[in-house]
Every structure is written in structure tokens, then in C-alpha cells.
Amino acid sequence: VGRPRLPDSPFWVEPEDVEADHLRLGAEESHHLLHVHRAREGAPFEATDGRGRFYECVLESAQDRAVGRIVRTTEDQGELPRGLELYVGLPEWRAVEQVIEHAVPLGASAIDFLPCERSGRDAIPASRLARLERVARAGIKQSRRSRLPRIMSSESLPILLKSLGPGDRLLADPEGRPLLHEITTSSQLPVQVAVGPPGGFAPEERRLLLESEFRPISLGPSRLTTETASLAVLALARNSLLRSKL
Amino acid sequence: VGRPRLPDSPFWVEPEDVEADHLRLGAEESHHLLHVHRAREGAPFEATDGRGRFYECVLESAQDRAVGRIVRTTEDQGELPRGLELYVGLPEWRAVEQVIEHAVPLGASAIDFLPCERSGRDAIPASRLARLERVARAGIKQSRRSRLPRIMSSESLPILLKSLGPGDRLLADPEGRPLLHEITTSSQLPVQVAVGPPGGFAPEERRLLLESEFRPISLGPSRLTTETASLAVLALARNSLLRSKL
Questions:
Q1: Separation CA B66–CA B208 (nearest Å)
Q2: CA atoms of B186 and B31, how far apart (whole Å)
Q3: Closest-CA distance of chain A to residue B131, Å
Q4: Element (H or E) spanning B169, and its range?
Q5: In which order are the strands placed within the sheet that holds B110-114?
Q6: Cα–Cα distance between A97 and A102 in angstroms, integer?
Q7: B154 touches B160 (CB < 8 A)
Q8: Alpha carbons A186 and A192: distance in angstroms, whole number
Q9: Is A43 left (phi over 0), alpha (psi -120 to 50) or beta?
């Protein structure tokens, strides 16, 4: 069997389980560290609270719950310099899961699945959103990020637009132009990207988005699914945010 | 039931089934057009041969095989101005399928799954490559492209590098810098991107790639899976190729 491999992803810790220089993992995470990884007292491990804190720890007590002494705390480990919000026309469930799986490591700070005219389905109910949040949490750990994105399903596009905070807005649109320098270096506002459901935004939805200052950008000459377009536009926005720091 | 919806994706036609101004679909595609879409004589449809030709047709004969009169032929419909080749460290099967699913619409002209030190598995056998080619073919149709990418699984990275043709080379690498203007407008060479297997390229593999002039580019501060990194770097390269045409 040999020596157990040390975990290379952080564990999840609830903010209320962190006190000064110690933290205590929940039952499931403790089981994983102590029994799957068979960590012993003195073993190093990492944890994140999903709210921007990332802890390097040393295992101090391995009875029942894992208790770690905090050696170092970093803020915003693995995070982008600005928020990156995805507003995506609600596709079928498998595509929803794929969007979460890729958008979380790519740095999304919020993901909103919007029931659109061509979605042909209602907003995602709370029970299923909870399931998606668990997928997102796993993604945060695997990608070594430290902020859990908000996972939402707004009632409709018009309702979303009425309450949407300020941001640099991009719309994946066949009639747009390739992304060039749309994302400025000076702003601290989030980047907000909109991607249509399968079949695209309906004309009236598109008009609303353009009126709300979503700038149309083209993702190229071939037709992309909702999930591929979502990942492509997030990858572009992510790269722009990183370049703007150079 | 109402009127059957006209297909919004091209059908597949073998190059040898195209003659002057007519083409004949194979058995499976004919069934789809005539029985699933219930197309009648005079109905418009599209077809591609996967080698760069895209045909607009009118259905002329609907008996047994669908025969269409070619109204218009375009070259390289949905294609990028340059080749875009992905060399990816072989991951598990589900990730392989995800790479194909997203890389084909994003414009990949070749996809090579390389067994690497950390892949822990051999090259994909021919029978499974044939299955992936069918997935790629479906992707070409759905994305309205016209060139089927080559799907390969080279024996090893050193063997690949010995035979690799010239290109603009990018390596997804945590120690790189964000992609800026690495892709020049002047070249006609393909863009060749390399992405490591789960766990990344081993040091010796990375050294070989850098020696072969793969330029390291960073995909950001969080850790990406092989499949997410593949899509992200393809999306960036794609956008660079489109921008270079502006």
C-alpha cells in the first residue's frame, strides 16, 4: 500500500469553524483527511472557507473531527483581480452541469441560468441549485480557488436586467466582432458576460441586452453550443483580466 | 404534429457521392432527411463533405437515397483562417470525449491524445479513435463547419515531436505569462497548442516541449483540469486568429 498520498486540494471549512489560529473540519471533510488520506498528527493540509480565505494548516488533533493549527492565511488564492459573472440562457440539465464544471475553474464569481424564450423550461428550482452548489464547491477545491461563486437562476431576463449591478458587459453574438480590448484595466467592476440558450436569444431579448450595454462580441465563424460558448467567452474574459495586470 | 422542422445542420456526404451539380446522401443521412425531417421533393437542405466543401441543395429525388441538386458550393464554411492543432496529454475517457465535444466547434483542425508519463495509460486504440471520429463528425455538422479534424493518438511525445510539422507553438504552463500577441498575423502555419495530462507534463516532457519552441502561456491563477485547459487555450488561440483578420 505504501505511504498515503497527501491531498493536493484544499478541504472545505465553514467560516464559523475557524478561530484565531485553529480550524476544525466538518464530519465529511474530517473523514476524508483522516481516513481516506490517513493523515496523522503533524501532517500538513490546506483548507478554504469559500469566502476568499485559504489556510495552510498542520493537523493537531485527529480524533473524530480534524483540528488544524493555522500556519499561514492567504486572501483570494486562485482568484481573478475582478469579478466574472456569467448570465447564460438555461439549457438542458447536462449542459448546465458542464457549464458549472468548466466555469468554476475558469474563475466565474457568479453563474445565473436564465430561463429564456427559447429555453423552453422554467428557472432551476432551489433543490437543484443546491446540488449545483455542491458541484461548484468541488470545483473550487479541485481548482484551488478560494471564493465560491453564487449559483442562481433568475426568474427572467427582464427581471435580471432591472436589478443587475454595474459591470463591463459582453454579449456572445454572431453579429459581433472578436474581443479585442473591450475590458479596461482601470475598472474594479465585475465583467458580466451573457450567452444565449440553445437556439440563441430571441430578438426581443437581444434588444434588451444591447440596450443594457452588453457589447456584442463574436466567438467565430462556426456555431457553438450554449455550453461551449459559455466556456469560450469566460476563457477570453479571464485572459483579458490577467493581461490587464501585466 | 404540424409541419416538420427543416434541418438547421448540414448532412454528411462522402466526396465520391458528389458529381458536378448533384449529390447523393448515404443510407443513414437519407433516412434522417427523408423520414425524421420528412423532407419532400423541392425542400432545401445543406451538406458537407468534411473536406472543406459545403453545399446548398434542393431535394430532387426522395426514393431510397436522397438526391439533391447543388444550388451553391462554398469553400471552408465555418473554418478558421489557419489550422489549430491540439496536442493534449491523454486523460481518462470521459475527459477525452469532452475535449472532442468542445474542441471541434472551437475549430480544431487536429486533436492528438498523447500518452504521457502521468497519463498512466497507453495510446487510444484505432477502434476507439473511430468512435471519436464519429463524435467529431457530429460536432462538425452541429457547428456548421466543413472540415473534419484529424483525431489521433500518437505513440509518445518524443515520437510526435520528431515528426511534427512547423507551426506557431503554445504550451499551457503555470509558469508562463498570459497570451498577448504571440500569434502573428502574417503566418499561414497552423497554431499548435500543447496541454498536459492530469497532473501536468513531467519535467522531462516540459523540457522537450520548450526545446521544440512551444512558448509557455499561463491560463491563470487557478488549477485547470486537462479538458478545461484544452478548451480555454483553444478559445484564446481561436480569438487571436479571428482578431488577426480584422
A1: 51
A2: 45
A3: 21
A4: strand B168-177
A5: B150-152, B110-114, B84-89, B191-195, B168-177, B215-217
A6: 9
A7: yes
A8: 16
A9: beta
A127: which residues sit within 8 A by CB, 6+ positions away?
Answer: none
Contacts of B7 in chain A (CB under 8 A): none
Instruction: Classify residue A118 by its DSSP letter.
Output: T
Contact A223 B178 (CB under 8 A): no
Half-sphere exposure of A162 (CA within 13 A, CB side): 6
C-alpha cell at A203: 430578438
pLDDT at A1: 44
Output the pLDDT for position B246.
Answer: 61
Confidence bin at B244 (pLDDT 50/70/90): confident
Residue A6 predicted with pLDDT over 90: no
Q: Which amino acid is at A87?
A: Y
Please tell me which residue of chain B has the smallest CA distance to A221.
B78
The 10 Å Cβ neighbour count of residue B37 is 16
- The answer to whether residues B144 and A222 touch, using CB atoms and an 8 Å cutoff, is yes
Q: Compute the distance between CA of residue A229 and CA of residue A176 in angstroms, rounded to an integer.
A: 14
The yes-or-no verdict on residue B4 having pLDDT over 60 is no
CB-based contact A177:A71 (threshold 8 Å) = no
Q: Is A58 helix (H, G, I), strand (E, B) or coil?
A: strand
Q: State the ipTM, two decimals.
A: 0.94
Is there a contact between A222 and B143 if contact means CB atoms under 8 Å apart? yes
| Other C-beta atoms lying within 10 Å of the C-beta of residue B64 | 11
Q: Where are the alpha helices (DSSP H) in B3-152?
A: 27-31, 93-103, 126-143
Per-residue DSSP letter, A17: G
The Cα–Cα gap between B166 and B193 comes to: 12
Contact B232 A223 (CB under 8 A): no
Strands B44-48 and B11-12: parallel
Q: Please compute the mean of the pLDDT values over residues B124-138 and round it to a whole number.
A: 96
Distance CA A38, CA A29 (A): 12
3-state secondary structure of B156: coil
| Cell of residue A126, nine digits | 432551489
Letter string b/e over residues B206-225, b meaning 16 or more CB atoms within 10 A of that residue's CB: bebbeebebebbebbbbbbb
Closest-CA residue of B relative to A181 is B243
Taking contacts as CB-CB distances below 8 angstroms, the residues of chain A near B220 are 80, 106-107, 238-239, 242
Count residue pairs from A and B with Cβ separation < 8 A: 119
